[in-house]
Design a protein that fits this description.
By secondary structure, this protein is an alpha+beta fold. The chain has 1 helix and 9 strands; from the N terminus they run αβββββββββ. Strand 1 and strand 2 (about 40) form a beta hairpin.
Length: about 130
């Protein structure tokens, strides 16, 4: 009985670690609340000229690489930084190599990073992106 409990506990810990492995440490868009819940900001769409959403299910929408955006549903692969409905899908990070940019908030500014690390290749979302295959 103790072996079953230990195995279950280990599997739960590994699952939690795998989920956190995709999280960008220092991303100010993710807020861990005292009650254990998480609140997530996505880049604001106000005062932005928004094109028609390009669905994540359409192969024609991913030519510029995927935008990795933290959402209330977790880390998602999106065709844009705003994570509007239909523009995101479940992350394949760690399972499939794709061209990716990580969208994070740091120092109160929205940035796009070449890697899930704030110290490596981050520029303003207003700059030209430099996606990396990961």
């Amino acid at each position: 009985m103790n072996a079953a409990i230990a195995t279950t506990t280990m599997l739960l810990c590994l699952t939690a670690l795998a989920a956190k492995a995709q999280y960008v440490m220092g991303n100010e868009a993710v807020h861990f609340m005292p009650d254990g819940s998480t609140r997530v900001e996505t880049p604001p769409t106000q005062q932005v000229l928004m094109p028609k959403p390009c669905p994540a299910a359409s192969p024609a929408c991913t030519g510029g690489g995927w935008r990795m955006v933290e959402t209330q549903r977790g880390l998602m692969e999106c065709t844009e930084i705003y994570a509007r409905p239909s523009t995101c899908r479940t992350s394949t990070y760690g399972a499939l190599k794709r061209s990716r940019l990580w969208i994070v908030k740091t120092g109160g500014q929205w940035m796009q990073c070449s890697y899930p690390d704030l110290s490596k290749g981050c520029v303003s979302t207003k700059s030209l992106p430099s996606p990396k295959v990961q």
